[in-house]
Here is the input.
Amino acid sequence: MKTNISKTTLAVAVSLTIGMALLLHATLARSESSKTQAKQVTVDNFSFGPETLTVPANSTVTWINKDDVPHVIASDDGVFRSKALDTEDKYSYTFTKPGTYPYYCSVHPKMVGKVIVK
Here is the structure.
């Protein structure tokens, strides 16, 4: 009888260990995914939407031009700058360091936005 209890206990312990390992793996995978999750800013009607975007470090932000005129996405401090984006063109930048990154359209300087990296 003692052998059966030991085998049963061992089987339960192994099952719990495997279950916990699978749960931990899934949780870590979701965490890594959110760290590198892509975020989007739409350029439309001569404005950025959203105007302010908050993302975690290591996030990639993609700007998509929905206007009928070209726009150039440029950070105030020169950290990033796109080529001229025609309609439906995209520009992406990965923010690795926390901080506040104001940007504007260099073709239409009244268009402003900000990315806040936590």
Remarks:
- The beta strands are 38-44, 47-49, 52-55, 59-65, 73-75, 90-95, 99-105, 112-117.
- The chain has a mean pLDDT of 84.
- The first strand starts at residue 38 and ends at 44.
- The chain has two domains: 1-35, 37-117.
